[in-house]
Amino acid sequence: MSFQAPVRDLLFTLKHVVEIGRLSQGGAFAELDEDTLAAVLEAAGQVTTDILAPLNRKGDQAGALYQNGKVTAAPGFADAYKAFAEGGWTSLSADPEFGGQGLPKVLELAVLEMVNAANMAFALCPILTQGAVEAIHAHGSDRQKALYLPNMISGTWTGAMNLTEPQSGSDLGTLTTRAEPDGNGGWLLHGQKIFITWGDHDAAENIVHLVLARLPGAPEGSRGISLFIAPKVLVNEDGSLGQPNALRAGSIEHKLGIHASPTCVMLFEGAKAELIGQPNKGLAHMFTMMNAARLNIGAQGVGIAERAYQQALAFTQERRQGRSPWSHDASAAIFDHPDVRRTLIAMKVRVEAARAICLLTALNADLAASAAEPEIRAAAKLREEVLTPIAKAWSSDIGVEVASMGLQLHGGMGFIEETGAAQHYRDARIAPIYEGTNGIQAIDLAGRKLGLEDGAGIAALIRDVDATVEALNESGDMEFDAIGHRLGHANRAFEAATSWLAERRGGPDALAGATPYLKLVGDVLGGWLLAKGALAASKDAGSVEDRRRRLLAGHYAETLLAQAPGYVASVTAGAEALHALTPEMLG
Amino acid sequence: MSFQAPVRDLLFTLKHVVEIGRLSQGGAFAELDEDTLAAVLEAAGQVTTDILAPLNRKGDQAGALYQNGKVTAAPGFADAYKAFAEGGWTSLSADPEFGGQGLPKVLELAVLEMVNAANMAFALCPILTQGAVEAIHAHGSDRQKALYLPNMISGTWTGAMNLTEPQSGSDLGTLTTRAEPDGNGGWLLHGQKIFITWGDHDAAENIVHLVLARLPGAPEGSRGISLFIAPKVLVNEDGSLGQPNALRAGSIEHKLGIHASPTCVMLFEGAKAELIGQPNKGLAHMFTMMNAARLNIGAQGVGIAERAYQQALAFTQERRQGRSPWSHDASAAIFDHPDVRRTLIAMKVRVEAARAICLLTALNADLAASAAEPEIRAAAKLREEVLTPIAKAWSSDIGVEVASMGLQLHGGMGFIEETGAAQHYRDARIAPIYEGTNGIQAIDLAGRKLGLEDGAGIAALIRDVDATVEALNESGDMEFDAIGHRLGHANRAFEAATSWLAERRGGPDALAGATPYLKLVGDVLGGWLLAKGALAASKDAGSVEDRRRRLLAGHYAETLLAQAPGYVASVTAGAEALHALTPEMLG
């Protein structure tokens, strides 16, 4: 079925839940107005529905092609990328000095969610390019920025991130790709990288590879890694294209999903490269753009969940089967069965909660970078840091869960590939894995992020949730009171789990409790943001939006929030029993 | 990686958790001894590891083939089926009068779990054949039994169940395939069936189709459906094969998983058929074998979860990445990371709980059919009825969940098809859908099953759980006391949810709460059975089994049991808000 850009819901969350208006209170985005916001989303919605969504199934079926040492994008994808770039969609948040539009990241993320919903495999090309742009923008020399950024931001060239090696996945400290001096002050890269997303393709004139590798004599481990630029086609100093570089795709992977996104083995065979940033600081340089990359994956979870939800909603209104207890129609649309509606609502609340968490993270990234007052910038930076692993992991898990629910609502048709529901279930499954597995996100949250400023970031979240609990309780509205009750309980669980973990931070007990902790925190924050939305919508009492938002917040409270306290036992179970495990006991 | 038949764990659960010894207390299986049990499981384990498991990945890649109107099984599958049949694995529980071995269903289910683990697509062929055998055994005439059963039980012929039509999935009352008199007292079938598992193939000499269709002038709806036998090749009265029948596969589906199981569109073009059982009682006849069929799907969930668990366990012991907080090894096996061990345990407890629920259901089916005392038979029948939807739905959901966890533990490799983890994730996804979607199972549990004998079946389960709580509390063992505490709490939640539903049985509120109710009940029963296992193993204090079973029951209590009370709010949320929903509010 066709994809409908969820512009109304995105605007609601931007305005009323994450309060994008905060960007207008001075700082770099003071001039952003609601009309611009709506116009950008509408236009993006059109591109995603008209150009990207129709290619999604075709791309899944045909996939990217590897032949004679070169990768060809799936049919139609190269043209779509050109149209996407020409529409300005690769340059939304980029620096105007290099041709970017200088719009907030939160708006870009809203657009990216739709791009992911329309065509997740396609979306990875601009996502990876953006990562490369940010790396060069943050750490490149003026010459490097001038040479590479304009073409990458305009979409004439794309970017790829070359980190993983066969023995180096979650732990990049063991990577072995090496740089040798070329005798002219540059470097020649030798090594093999795997899982390189859009590492080769024919959709753009050039591909700018950012590559982690070791300089000669560099220290072992993570402190001896440097970051390099190695373009597929060498770039002359006047910006024109020169000779092909000594790098190539060795193969592409046969994957569960995102078939149209070529996942390449990249071979660097003495490829000319230039160092970017400081020697041996490559990992640190990569980390500066990690938040944005992780947040983008969260948006993939939201996007695929939204797409799966839309498809299931349409199917359940068409498919007729069995008698409804409401209509007593002997062959009712399955939408009229309570269990089906329950499932649809369960999907929708997850989409809305994950969307709100991701957009809130992006808004804080914008505030951190651009707010007029330094206190606001600092608080926003802390919040961005804390929310990022939640946005990535919770939302990508939601993507898998909602895609699975959507498939289930199709009954037997869901298991047939041509229906399309199965593709979402397959595509969604990568998001919990890449850009740091969700287990690593959880460890980041329960470890480093919980420790930032002595736990101030988490404490501030707990306070903000309590403020919403208070607003719910004081609303004089019985439904809101019930939601406030559940949210308050869940928030106490959040608080208790946090205290327990904070005392054990970095130790095995905290590591063992990290994943259920992230789940608990995400569940609470999702409920908080849905409740905020319901409170905002209630100002227009009796409106469709008021009824919608009440229903969503109420269902979420009765399900995920009611279940949240039950996770404290998992969080606080400790690692002793796990430590005592032997393979003999498990086999 | 290679599949290891989980014979030790199956034997433990059979002996100590579901107490298979109860079958020896008189009745048809009085002579079953532990040595026979172990010998059958060991032999089955060998067939599954040596013959079926090696074909699993190949079958996924090649799939069944449809060409020139005929279906060819995936390469190697026809030979494997012959070997499987020759080994006697198609006849375990079948009636000795027709060549069966007359063994208990609980033993057969344990074998079938391993078959599913080794090769889920293959397993469907004997599963569907067994359904057809049971239908003919229960409802066929003596002539029909003599003509069809021996060859089906020996595996010379297979069986297929032809129920679904494009407009008739969950609601078979709308099916339109019709039977016309052939002028000789027989019938000619006209119509199209879809989703017919192993509906055509070349792995056996003949395929005996059981087909639901309407007699001329039959009442509309579900009361006008009759059951027919229509073999692929007509069978002469002396049992020899005659002419091909006028039925054929029109195509096979391109599916998400179980590629080696041909899912056929079957075209009946005046196919000769004989009525089986009573006219217009076809649906009722099918329902008599529904319990067994649903339980078999539960065993698919267990099997695929076991396979995914084994693969993840092996991978995590090989893959080295990052520093372990225990060993401080800078490049530790990921098995030494707390979050990875937590995930492995989470997988293992789900496998063991689902295994126990399925085997307990099968044991009750055996007792219901064979126990010496009528009271035991009646109580066992009631328990079988109540447990069947839980065994089917809870276990098949577990299959999907555990397969997803297993894929995640592989990191990026999990998303690459050649690793094999992705196949489990794809294959597992069908089990919550077929043989009655899990939503339908939940409605069956919260509706008809809860109502049986005024709720006596559920009440007996709650009492039995409480008896285990008491045993845990009285054990004088602190760990067991803690488990008992959680199990008791969870059981009170089970009780409260049951009472609420019982008052609303059949109404929209109960229908809306059915799915979270089934989840809650399955979670409680899984914890109960794991606790029973731990109590039994503790008799050999300090043994590996004692430590294993404590660990499993303890982890389950801290996670699923601790979370169980949180589901009461979902169960009791009611349907009012759902009823008020409009597509406008959801879109």
UniProtKB/TrEMBL annotation, chains A, B:
Residues 462-581 form the Acetyl-CoA dehydrogenase-like C-terminal domain. Residues 280-447 form the Acyl-CoA dehydrogenase/oxidase C-terminal domain. Gene3D superfamilies: Acyl-CoA dehydrogenase/oxidase, N-terminal domain, Butyryl-CoA Dehydrogenase, subunit A, domain 2, Butyryl-CoA Dehydrogenase, subunit A, domain 3. It comes from Phenylobacterium montanum. It comes from the Bacteria. Residues 160-269 form the Acyl-CoA oxidase/dehydrogenase middle domain. Residues 78-155 form the Acyl-CoA dehydrogenase/oxidase N-terminal domain. Signal peptide: none annotated. Belongs to the acyl-CoA dehydrogenase family. The keyword Isomerase does not apply. The keyword Flavoprotein applies. One of its GO terms (molecular function) is flavin adenine dinucleotide binding. Its cofactor is FAD. This is Acyl-CoA dehydrogenase. Keywords: FAD, Flavoprotein, Oxidoreductase.
